[in-house]
Amino acid sequence: MEAAPATRLEAGVQAGVQAGVEAGARDREPLQVIANRFRPVTLATDQVIPVLGPLGEALPDQGLRRGTVITIEGEPGAGSTTLTLDLIAAVTATGGWAVVVQLEDQARHLLGSIPAPAAVEAGVVLDRVAVVRGVSRDRWAVVVAALVEGVGLVITDLPPRVRPADARRIAARARDRGSILVARGSAWPERVAVRLRSEGGAWRIAGGRLVGRELSVEVEGRGAAPRRICLGRAA
User: Fold this and answer.
1) Among 6, 36, 135, 183, which residue has the fewest nearby CB atoms (within 10 Å)?
2) pLDDT tens-digit profile of 163-216?
3) What is the mean pLDDT of the chain?
């Protein structure tokens, strides 16, 4: 495992991925090793992982349905990372694994700048989160397809363009394996089970300091009209 500053979320990651394994390597076997390591030892009997609070109440199944693709959209700073933490918390709190995929041209992965206490407060079980780093754009589809074969929740920022054939293949594998893919961005070319869009919101101030924020989130599920909810979050 790769060492990281103790103040970062990575400090709590028990990755099970050797530092020498490159996600963009030509050989697909290391990716399968990663997926197999996180494969559940028992079959998932609950098809829906509950998500607590207003977000869960707004989701079509009041939670995350296994075998589906979810997209999260939003401008930087609008709260999309907060939504991502909520979903990671839901899966890891029930004993599942989550893997974050970092593209090679990202300065840091989406959780790399979050203080560990903030993740814990959101309900994330840190030792059930892993990171796969340095994934090239031309290998992204191969990496994600391999991971959804064995990991309960795979989170990835989308490259600028995703081929429809790759999206269909990844979605089919997630459906077959009962995994959940959270794709961050607007480049996913196929239909999804749930689309979340964070639109930011006003900060709450008390005693001259920031104490929280009200996030406006649009939730759209397959077969249901979009609805907008407000999520209160501590600063």
Assistant:
1) 6
2) 999 999 999 999 999 999 999 999 999 999 999 999 987 777 777 776 567 889
3) 80
> What backbone phi and psi angles, to 5 degrees, belong to 112?
-70, -20
Helix (H), strand (E), coil (C) string for 140-178: HHHHHHHHCCCCCEEEEECCCCCCHHHHHHHHHHHHHHC
154 vs 224: CA distance, rounded Å: 25
Residue-level pLDDT at 49: 94
Rounded to whole angstroms, what are the CA distances from 39 to 13, 34, 88, 101, 219?
17, 9, 17, 17, 30
The CA distances from residue 206 to 2, 28, 52, 234, in Å, are 39, 52, 26, 12
Residues linked to residue 70 through DSSP beta bridges, in sequence order = 182, 194
Nearest residue to 31 via CA among 184, 133, 156: 133
